[in-house]
Amino acid sequence: MTNIPQFQDVESAYNRIHQYIHFTPVLSSSAINQIAGCEIFFKCENFQKVGAFKFRGACNAVFSLTDQQASKGVGTHSSGNHAAALALAAQIRAIDAYIVMPENAPEIKKMAVKGYGGKITFCKPTLQAREDTLDAILKSTGAIMVHPYNQNEVIAGQGTCALELLQQCDCLDAIVAPVGGGGLLSGTSMTAKYLNPEIEVIAAEPEGADDAFRSFQKGERIPVTSTNTIADGLLTSLGELTWTIIRKNVDRIYTCTDPDIIEAMWLIWERMKIVVEPSAAVALAIILKHKNVFKGKRVGVILTGGNVDLGKLPF
Predict the structure, then answer these.
(1) What is the rounded CA–CA span in Å between residue 188 and residue 2?
(2) For residues 300 and 169, is the Cβ–Cβ distance under 8 A?
């Protein structure tokens, strides 16, 4: 396996990308604190460039390349925030970004990638089609693959979110992050445990895509076979690299239902007046579902993104 990233890689990533990313604010809501029975500090990555934390990892991956490597461009397959993030990072470095997207990807996502200068190739909506199409493009162009989550540079970049949060809020008892492929959670857990070994790192996952929960329970990685959740950013299985880091550093994983996610999403929109996508609301959902676990604690929550189709809201 590839060398596992360390906290020093997160520090290096921050030094590399801080001039390109937004230093996102931490917000709180006394009304939500009262409902939850704890003090919550929301790290608002919905205000990050491209509207999601994904820009951190993509930016670090792109700016880690040598000039010779970068000259051929970068490539990935993604129907979501990673596609837009990589396209923008490549645009800033003035290199090509080859993005393979399934033909049924949301129009808003296609427009975002195109707007950031990504060169889109559409394929059938299967993982095999995505991988085969990208493989052909990488071979013909010499572009460098940037994985959405299972890559050192991406994980280190995502870890800069927790690095900022723990600078902005000291004395946190716990930090909660959603988990899909595990890039954010692995980077968060690695950073948080280095800076404060006593902090609890807790993962939040939808019941309809609970491979991380099941893997954690069994002690071995169990890839997801089918998914059914409105949290479309959390449908991916853990990677081998992210699983290795998560197994070492994460204390607990809790799951929640889609109605739980909708309730939390509604609460954030209504009480905080900010837009978050379903995947971002999963962390608050598990806090509300397990109030006894978080009672009286100071809890950091990463609001992962705010990219929603306003014509298809779940409430």
Answers:
(1) 19
(2) yes
Residue 2 binned pLDDT confidence (cut-offs 50, 70, 90): low
Judged by DSSP in three states, 52 sits in strand
Distance CA 280, CA 276 (A): 6
Contacts (Cβ under 8 Å, ≥6 apart) of 88: 49, 50, 55, 58, 116, 117
Among the four given CATH numbers 3.40.50.300, 3.20.20.370, 3.40.50.1100, 3.30.43.10, the one describing domain 7-52+152-303: 3.40.50.1100
The pLDDT of 177-188, averaged and rounded, is 97
Q: Please provide the average confidence, as pLDDT, over all residues in the chain.
A: 95
Q: How many helices (H) and strands (E) does the chain have?
A: 14, 10
With a CB cutoff of 8 Å and minimum separation 6, the contacts of 1 are: 240, 241, 244
Q: Say if strands 174-178 and 144-145 run parallel, antiparallel, or are unpaired.
A: unpaired
**Residue 233, token pair as written in the block:** 């950013």
Q: How far apart are CA 161 and CA 188, in angstroms?
A: 7
Overall size of the chain counted in residues? 315
Tell me the two tokens of residue 296: 């009286």
Residue 118 CA, chain-centre distance (Å), reads 20
Q: H-helix or E-strand containing 252?
A: strand 252-256
Higher pLDDT, 170 or 208: 208
